[in-house]
């Protein structure tokens, strides 16, 4: 699409009729202007900006009213970890055409982290899984996590 648009601009500007917007031209154009492909990740654009603004205002009011310090304010967040997931990209020799792969493993655990705003108290990270029969629960190795199971809310 970019190549076609450039051909159109070339005609409208009365430039050389011999110009061809080849794939090589496009690659050089992208490199010259710092254009690269990115993976679309996260949920940044799904944020409710108005709710965030009102929360910040309410939190600031609460801090003033209750005279809270950064030692008394905590934040907690979770992340899903697909602990058996394989790599999706690899390096290969010139003569290799394909890289065989296995079925995607979807074994997931959740990791929960929490700390106060000053950073003086960090709660030990918690690893959560659906089942107590998970291999990490049966290990005798001392790991830097608390372990628990979670029950998915079936009520919706």
What would you say this structure looks like, in words?
The mean pLDDT is 77. Helix content is 25%, strand content 19%. It starts with a helix and ends in a 7-residue tail after the last strand. 0% of the residues are buried. The radius of gyration is 26 Å and the shape is flat. It is of the alpha+beta class and 156 residues long. The protein has 2 domains: 1-33, no CATH class; 74-155, no CATH class. It has a 4-stranded mixed sheet with strand order 1-2-3-4, with no helix packed on it. Residues 1-39 form the HTH CENPB-type domain. This is Jerky-like. Keywords: DNA-binding. GO terms for molecular function: DNA binding.
Comma- or semicolon-separated keywords:
four-stranded mixed β-sheet, 2 domains, 25% helix, 156 residues, 4 strands, alpha+beta
Q: What is the approximate shape?
A: flat
Tally of separate helices: 3
String of helices and strands = HHHEEEE
User: What percent of residues are in strands?
Assistant: 15-25%
SS-derived structural category = alpha+beta
The helical percent reads 25-40%
Q: Give the N-to-C terminal Cα separation.
A: 44 Å
- Which regions are unreliable across 5 or more consecutive residues at pLDDT < 50? none
Computed over alpha carbons, the radius of gyration is: 26 Å
Across the major sheet, the strand order is 1-2-3-4
Number of domains: 2
Mean pLDDT: 77
Chain-wise SSE layout:
Layout: H1 2-12, H2 23-32, H3 49-66, E1 74-82, E2 108-116, E3 122-129, E4 146-149
Parallel strand pairs: 3-4
Antiparallel strand pairs: 1-2, 2-3
Task: Provide a concise account of the structure shown.
By secondary structure, the protein is α+β, with helices and mostly antiparallel strands.
